UniProtKB/TrEMBL annotation:
Cofactor(s) of this protein: Zn(2+)
Database matches in InterPro entries: ADH-like_N (IPR013154), GroES-like_sf (IPR011032)
GO molecular function terms noted in the UniProt entry: metal ion binding; oxidoreductase activity
PANTHER family named in the record: D-GULOSIDE 3-DEHYDROGENASE, NAD-DEPENDENT ALCOHOL DEHYDROGENASE
Record domain Alcohol dehydrogenase-like N-terminal: where: 24-151
Organism from which the protein derives: Entotheonella factor
Keywords associated with the record: Metal-binding, Oxidoreductase, Zinc
Protein name as catalogued: Alcohol dehydrogenase-like N-terminal domain-containing protein
Name of one Pfam family that matches: ADH_N
Keyword Transmembrane helix: no
Family to which the UniProt record says this protein belongs: Belongs to the zinc-containing alcohol dehydrogenase family.
Length: 215
C-alpha cells in the first residue's frame, strides 16, 4: 500500500510502498477515506514532541489520527462491526479492557498501563511515530478505538470528529449556556471548532483571541 512515511529529517515525509497491515483477532482493517492534519503531527515533524516518551522524530513513522475510514476486513471475534461500516477515531489509546473503568466503557480513564502507549494502536510499540497512522491506504485498529459514523455524517466531516471533540469537551466544561458570551483563546483548528460548538450551545457572542491579527 501507499503511505506517507517520515524520513527522520525535520519536516520531511515521503510517499512510499509499505506492507499492508494484517488484521489479527479482535481487530479491524480499515481503508482510509480522509485524514486531517493535527497540530501534533506538525510538532512531531518539527521534533518538538521529543519531550514525550516515544515522541522523538524518527524514520519510518506513519502519522495521522484524525480520520474517516471504511472497514474492509473484520478480525476473528469482532461482532459489532461489518465490512462497509464507516469509522472515525474515538481517540482512545490502548486499554487493558479489564479494569473498573474499561468494564464500564469509560476507556479514557483506564487504569492499565496500556493507555499510556500510542494513540494509534494497541500494538506495544509505544510513541507517536509508529507505523499505523491514517496517512496510508490501510490501517489496523481495535474496535474500542473507533466510533461508527451515521449515514448523515459525511466522510470529510467524519475526519474532523476527533479535533471537534476537543471543542465539545471545552464547551461542556465551561458550561456555556444560551445567551452567554464565550471567549476562545487561540483561533487555530481546535479554536475554530470550539467557536462553532459554543454557538451551537447557544452563546450569543463568541470572541476569539489570537496572537495573529485578521487574516
Ligand atoms: Zn489530533
Ligand atoms: Zn482498563
Amino acid at each position: 500500500m501507499k503511505a506517507a512515511v517520515t524520513t527522520g529529517k525535520l519536516r520531511e515525509i515521503r510517499l512510499e510502498d509499505v506492507p499492508t497491515p494484517e488484521v489479527g483477532p479482535g481487530m479491524l482493517l480499515l481503508k482510509t477515506a480522509y485524514c486531517s492534519v493535527c497540530g501534533t503531527d506538525l510538532e512531531y515533524l518539527d521534533n518538538t514532541l521529543a519531550y514525550r516518551e516515544g515522541g522523538a522524530l524518527h524514520a519510518g513513522a506513519i502519522l495521522g489520527h484524525e480520520f474517516c475510514a471504511e472497514v474492509v476486513e473484520v478480525g476473528d471475534g469482532v461482532t459489532d462491526w461489518a465490512v462497509g461500516d464507516r469509522a472515525t477515531t474515538s481517540g482512545f489509546r490502548g486499554i487493558c479492557g479489564e479494569c473498573y473503568f474499561c468494564r464500564r466503557r469509560l476507556f479514557n480513564l483506564c487504569l492499565g498501563k496500556e493507555h499510556e502507549r500510542s494513540i494509534y494502536t494497541q500494538i506495544p510499540q509505544g510513541g507517536y511515530g509508529n507505523r499505523s497512522g491514517a496517512m496510508a491506504e490501510y490501517m489496523v485498529r481495535a474496535p474500542h478505538q473507533l466510533l461508527k459514523l451515521p449515514d448523515h455524517v459525511s466522510s470529510t466531516e467524519g475526519a474532523l470528529v476527533e479535533p471537534l471533540s476537543v471543542g465539545v469537551g471545552a464547551v461542556e466544561a465551561a458550561e456555556i449556556r444560551p445567551g452567554d458570551t464565550a471567549v476562545v483563546i487561540g483561533a487555530g483548528k481546535i479554536g475554530l471548532g470550539t467557536m462553532q460548538v459554543a454557538k451551537v450551545a447557544g452563546a450569543s457572542r463568541v470572541i476569539a483571541v489570537d496572537l495573529h491579527g485578521e487574516p
